[in-house]
Amino acid sequence: MTTPPPPFELHSTHAAGVLTVTASGEVDMATAPALGQAIEGTSEVTTRVIVDLSEVSFLDSSALNTLVVAKRSLAARNVELRVVSPLDRAVRRVFEITHLTADLSVVDSLGDAQA
Fold first, then answer.
1. DSSP for residue 99
2. The pTM is what?
3. Which of 55, 60, 48, 56 minimizes the C-alpha distance to 19?
4. For 34-64, how does the pLDDT look when each residue is reduced to its tens digit (9 = 90+)?
């Protein structure tokens, strides 16, 4: 019997001008819009958005599109985007295969994203 994937969950915190959006589970066509809304929910005092995907088990093209669109939208408002995706996770490979690691400022840990 196959174990079902963990449910998709989002949590956001905002401190010192940094919005951190933490996702878990699968980010796909059904859940990517919620991720996009959470990222776009920045205030005028936000200078950086960190999207922590450390607990994401699956990421599809709609999730990648959501992150690329968010990057452009945030850049137009002078807000930096960093994506956390540890090297030892399958999700990181998606960024590497699509050559989006640099464009989306993908880092290994939350500490790296906060630095």
1. T
2. 0.94
3. 48
4. 999 999 988 889 999 999 999 999 999 999 9
